[in-house]
Amino acid sequence: MRIPCPHCGTRDAREFAYLGDATVQRPDASTTRAPERFAAYVYLRDNPAGVHRELWYHSSGCHSWLVVTRDTLTHAISAVTAAAPTASLGSEAKP
Amino acid sequence: MRYSALALAWNAFTGNRHWAPAWRDASPRDAYDVVVIGGGGHGLATAYYLAKEHGIHNVAVLEKGWIGSGNAGRNTTIIRSNYLLPGNIPFYEWSMKLWENLERELNYNVMVSQRGVLNLYHSDVQRDVFARRGNAMRLHGVDAELIDRERLRAAVPCLDYDNARFPIEGALLQRRGGTARHDAVVWGYARGADGRGVDIVQNCEVTGIGIVNGRVTGVETSRGTISAKKIAVSVAGHSSLVAAMAGLRLPIESHVLQACVTEGVKPLLHHVITFGAGHFYVSQSDKGGLVFGGDIDGYNSYAGRGNLPTIEDVCEGGMAIMPGLGRLRILRSWGGVVDMSMDGSPIIDRTPVAGLYLNAGWCYGGFKATPAAGWCLAHLIARDEPHAVASAYRLDRFAAGRLIDERGAGAQANLH
Description:
The complex is a heterodimer of chains A (about 100) and B (about 425). Chain A is of the alpha+beta class and about 100 residues long.
């Protein structure tokens, strides 16, 4: 598996470290049901079979966090963006 | 037909023309008391114990492919109960006790071989950690022995004891651990369940779960609607997908776990051996191949195949303790899709949907758990309360903070 890093070009996956689902968002601690929302944020995942947006860290390259859109059934990567600008655009935490 | 030496001899002398199929390939009926989704070892064992221990015979096991075609056929066949934490030891020890009597129980040769499991340690600190684990096991009545370097060398001479980076100082030995024949376990439970009236329905994929007023009504399948009073989900690797049919999100990620087997050689390794300083464990199959594996690839995957860097990492671990391994060719490698739960421990519990039961999150260790998982899930379904040895495997333990972090890692391979 090779990941096209927007900064470094296409590199072997072993240059990267994986964090997981990029769509979960840290909830606001002041909202109602905050404990439940935090438990969901920390532990619950959609875990889809198909398109998955996930965080990878280019640890042996540019040290950037990336959002990789990858198909979990085929490992085919359809999009890679830098995580920083997209983080604030991510979907709300799921209940 | 009951299998015996006499039956074997009689069939041999009559050209093996009279063997009957070991179970019926049933067509689904309209309704069952219990539907078990997933015809792997766990699902079939559940159906078997439902019928045998709880008298519930109106049961169907629904399998989307053929039975045993998932992780039951992709594991490395190791059985052991060398766990540390109180929530785990009684469960895995109960599983080991069931393994020890499984052939008599099923009248089926599942080839349980208690050849011993050796966990190598490579430093004084690791010896102390393993001594603690061994003590915890012995306090729970499980056999454990700490073996020093010279005794280990006499038993397993083919290891690199003087490796400069990871010298082998000794091992924690569980003599009762070993291996079993994974396919035979599936077939044995299938035969036992079938003989007690359970319908085993293959090529029947569940596509939906019917729920009315918070209670299950049945399942939609590729072979029609089947109503059921109770439904058990036992679909390791795909638990999130089936749970989503009931509107549930699980604390699980699906990952690929790979294993390899070499060409067959003469008897070389008697024990199951695990490397204490890297991702590698190995045993020798009865056909002579060295069967080994390591860690998950480390990214979400349903592909059922992994990538070469993980194989390379595993082989490097193997070369570090067993340099002779480099002279063998790998015949094949394969991957299985495993449920990585967020604390690395399984879930056998009710769900927020009445009548829906979940058996999931087995991570690396589902095969050894097969008998006890079936036993405890059957108990949970029949009595609607958890079995004592599986009472820690609750679905709500994550939100409640009662994690069972045996490895302290869960789905994050980079924490291992």
